[in-house]
UniProtKB/TrEMBL annotation:
Alphabetically ordered keywords of this record: Membrane, Transmembrane, Transmembrane helix
Topological relation to the membrane, as annotated: Single-pass membrane protein
Localization, UniProt: Membrane
One Pfam family it belongs to: LEA_2
Primary location: membrane
Protein's name in the database: Late embryogenesis abundant protein LEA-2 subgroup domain-containing protein
PANTHER family with a match to the protein in the record: HARPIN-INDUCED PROTEIN 1 CONTAINING PROTEIN, EXPRESSED, LATE EMBRYOGENESIS ABUNDANT (LEA) HYDROXYPROLINE-RICH GLYCOPROTEIN FAMILY
A GO biological process held by the record: defense response to other organism
Region (Disordered): 125-165
Late embryogenesis abundant protein LEA-2 subgroup domain segment(s): 37-126
InterPro entries: LEA_2, NDR1-like
Segments passing through the bilayer: none
């Protein structure tokens, strides 16, 4: 059985978040600076996970920011935790907001608490452990056994097979 990785946000800080409203509201610009540290735990006992590039994007009230951060792909060993830190900043980028969402930004700005969504996107593959004991040699003749026999059960299980999984979504 193969389990998906477990993602947790260890630290996330919105250091700067400013909106320059315009008329019409769709011409508004946004400036922000975000740092986030994410831990990924591989709960599998025998399967490593190979990640493609890990991209982090942000959105405010359903409107996605244009800028994102990415970390190059990496290999995640079985039963280990990998920690990735990313920083995204933008100054004066256009954002498509409706007039009510500009008002919502002002209300959240007054309270000092913003609802910003962080999304992690990646493609990952599970890599099985190779089993050297599944390759047996015929000790009497020093040759490999005939190939007309079916492979052993450990080989049929698909050691080393790659399976794509759905994208990860982490909200805080």
């Amino acid at each position: 059985m193969v389990f998906p990785p477990k993602a947790t946000a260890d630290d996330a800080m919105l250091q700067w978040f400013a909106l320059a409203p315009a008329d019409p509201a769709s011409n508004s610009t946004i400036s922000f600076n975000v740092t986030a540290t994410v831990s990924l735990r591989n709960p599998n006992m025998y399967r490593a996970i190979e990640y493609g590039a890990l991209a982090m994007t942000f959105s405010f009230n359903g409107t996605r920011f244009d800028d994102s951060a990415s970390v190059p792909g990496f290999k995640h060993k079985a039963r280990k935790t990998a920690t990735q830190s990313m920083r995204v900043s933008s100054v004066g980028k256009p954002i498509k907001l409706t007039r009510p969402r500009v008002g919502e930004f002002r209300a959240e700005n007054d309270t000092g608490s913003f609802g910003v969504e962080m999304r992690l996107d990646t493609v990952l593959q599970y890599k099985g452990r190779s089993h050297p004991t599944s390759r047996r040699r015929n000790r009497r003749s020093g040759q490999r056994p005939p190939t007309d026999r079916p492979p052993s059960p450990s080989v049929r299980r698909g050691a080393g097979e790659a399976r794509p999984v759905p994208r990860l979504l982490l909200l805080w």
